[in-house]
Amino acid sequence: MQIRLTTISENTAGRVGVLAEWGLSILVEADDYRVLLDTGLSVSAAQNAAALGVDLSKVDKMVISHGHRDHTGGLVPVLSAIRKEIEVVAHPDIWASKYSRTFREEAEYAGIPFAREALEGLGASFLLTTEPVWITDNIITTGEIPMHTEYEQIDSNLYVREDEELRPDPLRDDLALIIKSEKGLIVVLGCAHRGMINTLHHAQEITGEQRIHTVIGGTHLIRASRERIDLTVAELKQLGVERLGVSHCTGLPAASILYQELGDSFFFNNTGRRVSLQE
Residue 153's domain spans which residues? Predict the structure, then answer.
């Protein structure tokens, strides 16, 4: 089985001719099947796909890692490029009314910027579940991720509006995509709001596979304490992760520490990066 991961939208551009935009979108190709995880913030995923020679009309299924706009804001241009009915796998809470104080003192809307009916009119069919979904024999979503580690906490700047009040968002909709390979698991993260280590442990539990070959995507260590980063590094080493490609919400301070600690197994996963694994 040949596995290829193509990052079509991320905060930074890794090559000439692609747009950099805060957010994330990664195309997973395995089992002769194409799954698009997230759609970035706005136009970048659709435009970069064309620049990278990715034909979005050949995508077989979509997965939404969580309901923040920097992962869903590109839904309309992406669905317009797909031009067919397509199932979108996600947690029911992607439709929660999400707010953030990440970039400004006043809370601003941070949820999906489109009505569900509009997306369905473009061909989206939503499969909303808290449980893992086996897309193929080797491609699985995590479903809702339990939080077990003491040091991985939800960002306190993120909220959900309920009964006209802003309350802390538990980010129950945060999920990841897993690919089973002969060399171990490949785990594709959206933002890892519920913790990268929690996500990896859950992936092991779901699949029964303990080896983790590659972890790629957003790790949400952007505001993490040095203690949390050090504990994360120690667990990554304990798990034997062979490659770690960080994106989006990792942050340069955390990424620098990860590189110092993990050496050649670390890489920046930017827009335009292709990661291949030939079994």
Answer: 2-278
